[in-house]
Amino acid sequence: MSQQTLFENVQRLVLEHLTSVTQFLDDMVLIESPSRSVEALNLIANLIAERFHMIPGCSINREYGPMGPHIRFQVAGSPRRVLLLGHMDTGYKLGTLAVQPYRRDAGFIYGPGVSDMKAGLALIWGAFRILTMLDCDIPTLDALFTPDEEAGSPTSREKIEALAHQADAVFNLEAGRPDGSVVIARKGAAHLVLTTHGKLSHGGFAIETGINAIVELSHKIIQLSALTDHTLGKTLNIGVIQGGDNTNTVPDLATARFHAGFWKLDDWNEMIDTIRAISQRPALDGAWSELSGELSFIPMERTPRNQHLYERVCRAARLLDLPVPSAVQTPGASDAGFASLHAPTLCGMGPVGGRWHSRDEYLVESSVSTRLALLIVSILLTEDELS
């Protein structure tokens, strides 16, 4: 079969199966699946497993855990391996569909989680289905659907890294950016808590005997905020502060919860060393502090191997006579960072969408077919280029 005939078959099959892909998306969005809602996540996992059972030769391995199920799918092919990633959880609470109904309007599809990232899950299923129908060699296909990305992937990181370590290429099917771009680099993220301890006393007649934990925390907040360097993309945001019970008591306890963002793992290592130093250095005599929390997402750094994989996607777009997507860096973190430690990785390969985690989250309906074709041909070219 010629390459031209092969890609014409891909486009034909995409159009033939587009209705089933969008119906799968409909069914998934109508099952709300917030992070930490294990029962709801099991329901959507049941639906997903049923759909993948329809694919001949697809093996399914489901593991149950405290944050919900992980499902791994595999279709055996050549020794080359491509890993597709997606998460089943959304950033919306149960009951959101009642006030934010799933709907289509003027070429857009709206609903909680429609593009972040249930459309990406539907594309993975469509890619598996169509690739198994093609009369050509394909790489071994792995897919991992996780339950906790919106909560920082505490139970998924190890599984993602293990599969990525075996992969020759990884595509994360998070939504394509609103302008159609794919994502070649993403920030890492950490969520930390600083607790300051002082000494309780009366705020009137015995104020001098107390040590004010809020004042201690205030000194540290100023120092922590100074770590933000927008030119390097290093940010630190104090999001929540708590302390004290009333105005006539010197508080002995105060806390600050904050988020750190960074483009490079080296930046994080430098930041956390400075944060620890700030936490250990008291501003008030007798005060002391505790630092807790950890790195949530590894940054997906812009590397030569990620660039090489992006060039395969550009070639696929040209072969399909589609607009070549640009490659962007985005501050939002994702599971792609874990994968990129071990294999060439691209994120944002799903259908185009935007306004995630809001009442207006949307998906560009026409992008479902174009991104499905782009994903399939990118996978085929990955096999070709790596051979």
Characterization of the model:
The protein is of the alpha+beta class. The protein has two domains: 3-187 and 299-386, Zn peptidases (Aminopeptidase, 3-Layer(aba) Sandwich), CATH 3.40.630; 188-297, Alpha-Beta Plaits. 37% of the residues lie in helices and 26% in strands. It has helices at residues 3-29, 38-52, 96-99, 114-131, 157-166, 213-225, 265-280, 304-319, 336-340, 367-386; strands at 58-63, 70-75, 78-87, 103-105, 108-110, 139-146, 169-172, 182-186, 188-197, 201-202, 235-243, 249-250, 253-262, 288-297, 327-330, 345-346, 353-354, 362-364. The strands form five sheets. Strands 1-2-6-3-7-16 form a six-stranded mixed beta sheet, sandwiched between helices. A four-stranded antiparallel beta sheet has the order 4-5-18-17, with helices on one face. The chain has a four-stranded antiparallel beta sheet with strand order 11-13-9-14, with helices on one face. α1 crosses α10 and α4 crosses α10 (367-386). The mean pLDDT is 96.
